[in-house]
Amino acid sequence: MLRATELIVQFGQTVALDRAGIDIAPGETVAIMGPSGSGKSTLLHVLAGILRPDHGEVRLGEQRIDILPDGRRSQLRLRSFGFVLQFGDLVPELSLRENVELPLRLLDVQKAEARTRSAQLLRQLEVDDVADRRPGQVSGGQAQRAAVARALVHRPSIIFADEPTGALDSATGELVLDALIGLAHQEGSAVVLVTHEARVASYADRTVFMRDGRVAS
Ligand SMILES: Nc1ncnc2c1ncn2[C@@H]1O[C@H](COP(=O)(O)OP(=O)(O)OP(=O)(O)O)[C@@H](O)[C@H]1O
């Protein structure tokens, strides 16, 4: 479904990706592991259409997304992708509920429908009791579960997660991962999970390893 080939990304003298490639099948969970600086986050950003590669291509189905103009790539990200980052990417001024509804509102889904769908996910992630609080008024694990709900709410084809449990203790991290992978599976979303922890990668269907900007299976 998502296929990247021959990706090269350079930041000045640093070669972050050196002919990296990867295939993501519909609904599968793939962990990307590797040492610090090996290019994991850069690969995630290119796959997700956030960063344009200097060379190579990224296809979502038949469509080349790396050459789309910025506005069309933003639209595609909003519609087809979900994101869970390490921390702090919920909008601090909005309640958890409003954060989860946000992708649907941006996609012009009716308010009532957005509310129903968000409420369902907030309940499944067991944060419905704190849904009216802002991110600063809940625990890190609760905020991260709301971020998982937000990533899933519009039924994206792929969720990109960059160290999603990096800021949590291990028990809370496992709850968040269980929820992310379990619900993504249930909804048919693929997950691309960057992590340096083997324990986290063990949740994936498959792990790829990066070294010096290249992907080795
Ligand atoms: N915006 C940037 N400007 C300059 N160099 C960058 C930038 N982003 C990444 N790099 C460099 O590119 C290389 C790959 O970085 P990247 O963040 O992809 O690695 P990583 O495997 O995700 O590392 P970590 O596990 O430490 O997060 C590193 O040498 C990094 O210093």
Automatic annotation (TrEMBL):
* Stored CDD domains: ABC_MJ0796_LolCDE_FtsE (cd03255)
- UniProt KW Nucleotide-binding keyword: yes
Keyword terms: ATP-binding, Nucleotide-binding, Transport
Q: Which domain of life is it from?
A: Bacteria
User: Mind listing the GO molecular function terms for this protein?
Assistant: ATP binding
Keyword Transport set for record: yes
Coiled coil location: none
Q: Which residues form the ABC transporter domain?
A: 2-216
Q: Which PANTHER family does the record associate with it? A: ABC TRANSPORTER RELATED, IMPORT ATP-BINDING PROTEIN
Q: Write down what this protein is called.
A: ABC transporter ATP-binding protein
Source species of the chain: Micromonospora sonneratiae
